[in-house]
Automatic annotation (TrEMBL):
GO biological process, one term: DNA integration
A Pfam family it matches: RVT_1
Membrane-crossing residue ranges in chain numbering: none
Occurrences of domain Reverse transcriptase (ranges): 455-717
Protein name: Pol polyprotein
GO molecular function, one term: zinc ion binding
CDD domains reported in the protein's UniProt record: RT_LTR (cd01647)
Region Disordered: start-end pairs: 1-25
Integrase catalytic domain mapped to chain residues: 745-897
Amino acid sequence: MATFNPELDSSMPAGEAPVRRHTSLPLPKQFDGMSELWPRWRARFQRFRLCSGLSENPDSEQVGTLLYSMGDIADDILAVIQLDESRTTYQETLVALDAYFNSKKFTIFARARFNRRVQQPGESVDSFIQYLHKLADECSYLTLKDELIRDRIVVGVRDDDLSKVLQGKQDLDLSEAIRLSRQAEARTEGQNLLRPRVDLVQRAFVPPKTTKKFLHPPKQQPSRFGTDKKCDNCGKAPFHKKESCPARSAVCHSCHKKGHYSSVCHSTKVRAVDIEKETDNFLGSIQHVGETDVWTAELQIDGHPSTFKLDTGAAVSVVGEELAAGRQLQPCNKILKGPGNTPLNVLGLFQACLKFKNRKIREALYVIKGQQNSLLSGTACSRLGLVARLHSLTPEKPHFRKEFPNLFGGLGKLKDSYSIKLRPNVQPFSIYTPRKIAHPLLDKVKAEIKRMLDDDVITPVEQPTEWCSGIVVVPKADHTSVRICMDITALNKAVLREVHPLSSVDDDLARLSGSKIFSKLDARSGFWQMPLDPQSRLLTTFLTPFGRFCMNRLPFGISSAPEIFQRRMSEILKDIDGVICHMADILIHSLPSSADVALVNDTDAMAQKTLNNLPASSCKLQEIITQQQSDPEVKEIRNFCQRGWPALMPQNPLLQQYWANQRYLTIINDILLFNHRIVVPTNMRLEILNKLHESHLGVTKCRALAETSVWWPNISSPIENMVRKCSVCSKLRPVAKEPLLPSSFPEHPWSRVAMDLFDLHGKTYLLLVDYHSRWPEIRILDHLTSAAVIVRLKSIFATHGIPDVLVSDNGPQFASAEFRKFTEEFSFTHTTSSPRYPQANGEAERAVQTIKNLLRKATDPYVALLMYRATPLQNGFAPKSNNFYTNATRSLKIQIP
């Protein structure tokens, strides 16, 4: 171990006198800044101060040695407490440091941890008592410290017999409790040495000629009425009914089923026992009691030791309720599942500092209800150095571009052309004025048209055409060029589509089974590689500020393009093994024993027969790596992943979002990934957004597409803004219908009445229905005149009185001057619904349907009408219960006020 010698230490400032000591002792280990460990480190330095003779030196040397021993953290603390080390004594410095670290203690939290502490499995009594003393030092118990530690020993020891003995002792003090606990532990260890413990052996019945069976402990079958019979659900005696069982609402921690305790659960996991064929029908089965798991590690959680089980298959780290006692839990928005896809009861999560040897990380710990063992995730195991990757492969990139130069040049062209088929008797669509384009984009549009002309994608049109579409100009992410999109909505309605099956993801995954080597070819501007026949080209005419043009190649956006292109590519590559084609993407896969280059040779040979060129787009991975290394934000995150994340959250708000997701960030093959998704640098995000929304999908689909490959912090908001601001989507977005508003409910019957006419069996009927009671009145009309309607209304009003409001549609019988005069004479308000909008008179329309169905089915319409009026509605009352005659709060309305 290195010793501290100020005479040889070149880092000591010049001019300071060396520390005079009687012995050469090593300095205490540097303080790591945790307030819980300050008292222990302070006591160790005090011993060093006395043994080394430092206490006899001047205060300035003692203060300097103290701060030097603490390490770099001392400078940060001095800046916070504003202490001038050159003007303070050693004792004043200690008092200031004590006040600083004591201010960071949380007494309530410390006491909660103390009161929840129990002896852990495999933990010795001495270790348990030492930990209780450590916890009690943080609780400020003062004179009650020894008594509370004694009580905690009595309650927290694992030996139930020992706990009972301690509880029965009169005048039990702390020293006596410690002595008895040590004696009990020594007796138990001696008993285990003299009489080693064996696992419980029971007998289980096995059918004859059985070679493997899952064995369970046998169930005892005593008499149901015996006094020693225990309940199967709670395990208590005497036997009682299930309705009075205390476990009827409990949830088992073993099988997660309701109605019994885990101590009596019959779903105990056992191991499969292989046996040879025996003539005897019985065999000994061993119920597994447990074994020591070597995959554990002793970590420190915020300075407190705790044992974690290393689980490299776990996605997150989990702890039980005990370790979370007194902590402020954050809500958990994730659904965690355990073995067997069983949902876990997550109480919340908290951030903690985990330390193993000299490594410290910040980790989110999820608190699981009923969790016994703390589990450390695979990511945390790797970051703490508990597990390491022993073997890694660096893939070699073959130089395909040099070996197959004919596949990577220019825009390809298929030999066979495509003819667009239209439905019969289709009305052509044509525009005569070009759509307006922003003036700053005109030069870029002109340059893009020139490029398309040079690539033989379009041709100028000078003759008259029946079809002519508009264009939509979309700036590209590089801000130097644009994409010209044709709005061929009208043409798509007339195009006859061919049906061609597309393979599903499950089918493709099955075909990839066993493959280890993969290559991907991407046909650049795939649709543009398929030429159109001359008769179909004029159908794709589009109008620009620079004239009219038509497509020589298959245009993007036409409804039949995906099926046609997929069918043509499948025909080209169908005879090649190990090739999967999806539109313009070609995936080449091979088994480990074969060579991927051989498949590329086969692809090249087949392509030469049917293709002039099959170009691939430039490799984006190298571009992304370059952009990640040059982007300041992403570059900093790459450094964190390679050198370790800081213990505290960075002050930069942009880096804080990465810091919160640090467990998901990693670098593979020099590419920064978020799980399996590429972290997109800042200057490439607009390009990615345009790619995600290239097909004008909605917000949900664009987000789902992004989740398959790309990520950056808060990616959902830019996607939503992109879709919301898209001019094409805004123009074609369906108009949302206004919600229907219910009419006001009248306070008493026959106040608001709906009216309508309907025909049935060659007769015309007048229907009135009360809004309050749903009471219907039906009359047959001899003539469809206002006078006939008025006569029927007078007969109804003579029975029920005059309503306050009468609602109808705008039929001629209700809109005449004669009917208006009738409303004035009888002093009621006549309200009509909106023309051609029957929903406004929904009460009458609904009643018409009900009465029509009633009269169609009834043999006696009067009996049917009587039964309807007596039948309770959804509110529990029949129309007869709410009609005028059973409501004495309203008088019969007549013409006299």
